[in-house]
Write a structure and sequence with these properties.
With about 220 residues, the chain is α/β, with parallel strands linked by helices. The protein is about 30% helix and about 20% strand. Helix 1 packs across helix 5.
């Protein structure tokens, strides 16, 4: 059964004792439950392939559905994508940290479970300071997916996470209710024109930004 931690979110730093405990677990290849502003998620070091495989086993997720990757900011993009397009940086500067996942070309070093059939990867920088502190402390992007059994509702509070999932992870971080409570908008920028493949929290704003950025009247 997971140890449940509830850090003081008013003074978040990646080197506080509780966050340090979380990041040690990630560096050891553990799977943990983390809060974000959208939903609670299962997370692991994206470059620890056995840990990423464990996420799929816990969630009972099809290996044909890659997990997303969470980064602490644009400075980590070079670790997970082979092509940082100018549009990607424009979108990141406008909507990150926030509930926008960008589909980009995945770096070759990423495990296959974090890449789509075409080698793409979904990347997001979460708005929640606690989540970013965990990523910074782990010193690696995180593989992440909602902390629910595949096909079930995504939890917006730790109390909503399936007991079997909590029992299967090392640590669970209680960050309170998700502020947004709606899954991120997913935008594929590997195709032209870019296409929203999953509506989410900021769909209209993204579409308007794209019209301006690409000159599409």
């Amino acid at each position: 059964m997971a140890t449940i931690l509830k850090p003081e979110v008013e003074d978040i730093s990646f080197d506080t004792p509780e966050i340090a405990r979380v990041t040690r677990a990630l560096k050891s290849g553990d799977v943990i439950i983390i809060p974000t502003e959208t939903v609670y998620g299962l997370a692991a070091d994206v470059f620890h392939e056995a840990a990423v495989q464990k996420i799929f086993a816990i969630k009972k997720r099809s290996p044909t559905k890659p997990v997303a990757v969470l980064v602490a900011g644009t400075q980590q993009l070079s670790q997970v994508t082979s092509d940082i397009a100018p549009l990607a940086l424009k979108l990141a500067n406008q909507f990150w940290p926030g509930p926008l996942t960008l589909i980009m070309r995945g770096a070759d070093r990423l495990p296959q479970l974090a890449r789509g059939k075409a080698g793409s990867v979904g990347v997001r920088c979460p708005a929640m300071a606690l989540t970013r502190a965990i990523i910074k402390g782990a010193e690696t992007p995180l593989a992440a997916t909602s902390a629910n059994l595949s096909g079930g509702p995504s939890p917006t509070m730790l109390d909503q996470v399936n007991r079997g999932i909590i029992d299967a992870v090392t640590l669970a971080i209680d960050g309170g209710p998700a502020e947004v409570g709606i899954e991120s908008t997913v935008l594929d920028i590997t195709i032209a024109p870019p296409q929203i493949i999953r509506p989410g929290a900021i769909e209209r704003e993204v579409l308007e930004f794209l019209r301006v950025a690409t000159g599409d009247k």
